Amino acid sequence: MIKRNTILVALAFCLTATASQANDIFNYTLLEGEVVRDDSGETGLAWDGHGWIGGDVNKFSWETEGEFDGHVIEEAEVQVFYQRMISDFWDMKAGLRQNIEPDPLSYAAIGITGLAPYWFEVEAMAYLSENGDVSTRIDLEYELLFTRRLIGSPYIEIEAYANDVPELGMGSGLATTEVGFQLRYEITRKLAPYVDITYERAYGSTADMARAAGEDDASTTLRLGLRVIF
Question: How far is residue 83's CA from residue 59's CA, in Å, rounded to a whole number?
């Protein structure tokens, strides 16, 4: 079983690896905070962020996302990785993912991230939970420059499971897809308000589990947010 305190060990390993390379150490942090309104009329808050520290070849990276309904945190997760360049446009990542809400659960994680032909940003990850469940998550994103400051970003996230995980409401096979479009205006390269619309749908036994729990198997969400880069 994956122990949650191994995150600290992984963090120490990653920092040691990045410090052992050349003296040129850089860092990058992107944070998004947003107001969320779904098609049922409910409103909440959400965050999304990622960043890294290191050099061109080796770096330590992290990701986090979650939602807050105004009273409690409904969803939250943190991921930490050791990341290494394997070609000019691709990195391999290995590390840990920690689900904090709604159910604390730890995962080992491995995958790749980079630029596909035609400048599509791709991240493909595989996860092994402490309970032995295997899942994958694939993210694709593209940037459209309407003007020097007005930028559109269509994206899609696909999640699949090797077996049913009832405690998470996820079924085997293709579980969910999330398709969205973000339109942002860059006041500067480091500060940009945005509007984002997302359509999420569940499939197969995942959809069956959602309906059995009295939830919709598809939803549309509108987000108004602010992006900050450090």
Answer: 5
Which amino acid is located at 105 in the chain? Answer: L
Report the alpha-carbon distance of residue 45 to residue 174 in Å, rounded: 28
How many beta carbons lie within 10 A of that of residue 126, not counting itself?
16
Task: Encode the chain (230 residues) as per-residue pLDDT tens digits.
Answer: 445 555 444 544 554 544 444 457 899 999 999 999 988 888 899 999 999 999 989 999 999 999 988 778 889 999 999 999 999 999 999 999 999 988 899 999 999 999 999 899 999 999 999 999 999 999 999 999 999 999 999 999 999 999 999 988 999 999 999 999 999 999 999 999 999 999 999 999 999 999 998 888 999 999 999 999 99
How many whole angstroms separate alpha carbon 159 and alpha carbon 175?
6
Burial class (CB in 10 A: 0-12, 13-18, 19+), 159: buried
